[in-house]
């Protein structure tokens, strides 16, 4: 950008810029476990030789000829410089390649370096799959613990307890003498009126205990373990630093409290938090590989793959997981990351399959297979489900953000433990009387997805033979053709219970998502859509059965055949509602396809998902994750962000006309005391370097953190440095008197090629530059003179102002 090699007399620095460019917002040196501490024994100052000039003049010591450990790291709540990080990685790879041509040892190191990425993916897949299997097993057992205990062993859940029993019947396979409810254990009877009250009391007590333990552990040990984690993961993958969010304590507490939160019966899921868990595993394992430990951009490639692993173990959908990472969370997704994501998701799915947490050789609890083909006319109800999903998504986002803003801006947010306990109490009290709200969300989805078979005993499969007799399953009337699909009393009971469950789930999920416990949104959204879809599916089925003589239905409602598959409607409704909330499209269809194992249902899923997205986007452009990112003030510049007004760089840059002048450094005419005073009086993350205050000709850009650490090292280790010592950003030695104190030469930390735009550059182009290059600041110049600076925060504030939002809601830079 700026070739200044011939301007030694003007003190222009010439040479390559240093690769260790960083940014911070303050001068603290409280480095966390993710940041290597400053090695005080590593002296940065070195003699350059005993020449005559060295004897007659003060030594000019370049403090950063050798790497200082603290240089190149990032402070909390700041954005990384993608360009510098990628440049560092290219230089590292180039050095390894050159060395590998000269020695066998270097060649072996080069091979191991190339293989380290695949080894890391293998470890992430194994660790995430093992944790997901443990979470599934523990959550299933603790959920059943609210209702009773197994006499053969308290560690058996209800289903496993009755598997080994010889006294359970097929139609009542969930009842066996080895499984006792709490009322049976305490009172000894199971049929009296007070027994149900006692069971209800124990259900509520266990739910409150689990929720209390979850919120206390989160608050005491790992505040970052609450919520879904996906909004923060999206922000981190865009280059933001949140120290501790992917640390070991967050992983431990999130894993434990996720089991407790799911077991408490709250309307939440474990699928979203599993993405956070997988990313924690990836971040921790990155510390064992130098290539990823020292480079934030490379680490984010690994985190993108870990996001795919999280969805893979959550839904048993490795391909859907890769597409989810690409479509929903990743900011930078090169082709190499795609391959490694696929490999890691495959390993994780294989590990989960080996653990077999559900005992049915499936990766998820609600795996189903449909065998009845769908018909063209059914696209109409499928599109209606898509409209419902879009309306539900827009309603949920608006209501949940309003509730979270109320929690954030009022005293409600000061009492997270009480809030969790109150919501848990309401959930448990209202959920227990209705079968479909009492069971876990995963079991409910499995029940709703299920296609009624010959041996099903569910109320959803209760059909009549004729007006005078009923049966608990469809097999009793198999010979009667279409008569087997007439709704029985059990089905009518199930319908009004599902209608109540739908209203309950829609309302309670709004208050649950965002509380200070791990809470995913995938399962509650799927549950809402599955209930709505099953209700519509049964309605369509009965409409077809009662009107099968009509010309429009006669062709595909033949006697002895099933016209409608209500379970398919439940699956389509689930995809529509989840799509309305998250705005996922391709990845969502693939995930649902992998859940069902049927290619022929892709078209209904696509129709419902696209309709849902169109309807939701017409009402609100943001997904639930983007809405929470904006609520929290994170500096996330998404692909959907657009500049709709004609503005120029000069309209957004700082300083404006009414602002104080820009704080700058000069390349050779400032002392240590003046630089330290500038640092103390400002909170800026970096400073432009100019030739002089009068000319304002741009030389480069230096980051505050580099400057602070370099000056501190100079005072500690460079002999003779005092407050009046000169600070130089030049390559050439300036004239100096023999009695002058040694100068501090900081050319190595100067970025000689900062990104610049002219004052008249349209903001659409500036936004594209920031988004595609991952910049965190850009300098505005005119004919080589510095006019101002534009940061990522300035752009987000400007876009918020243009959208009539509060620009001060952008909290971080």
From TrEMBL:
PROSITE patterns per record: CBS
Gene3D superfamilies for this protein: 3.90.1280.20, Clc chloride channel
Pfam families: CBS, Voltage_CLC
Keyword Transport: yes
Cleavable signal peptide: none
SMART domains, alphabetized: CBS
Domain annotation CBS: ranges: 653-719, 749-808
InterPro entries in the cross-refs: CBS_dom, CBS_dom_sf, Cl-channel_core, ClC
Topology in membrane: Multi-pass membrane protein
UniProtKB keywords: CBS domain, Chloride, Endosome, Ion transport, Membrane, Transmembrane, Transmembrane helix, Transport
Transmembrane portions of the chain: 118-142, 203-225, 246-268, 274-290, 302-326, 376-401, 413-432, 494-515, 521-540
Alphabetized GO MF terms: voltage-gated chloride channel activity
Any one annotated GO CC term: endosome membrane
Subcellular location: Endosome membrane; Membrane
Record family assignment: Belongs to the chloride channel (TC 2.A.49) family.
Record's protein name: Chloride channel protein
Species the sequence originates in: Carassius auratus (Goldfish)
Gene transcribed to yield this protein: LOC113052149
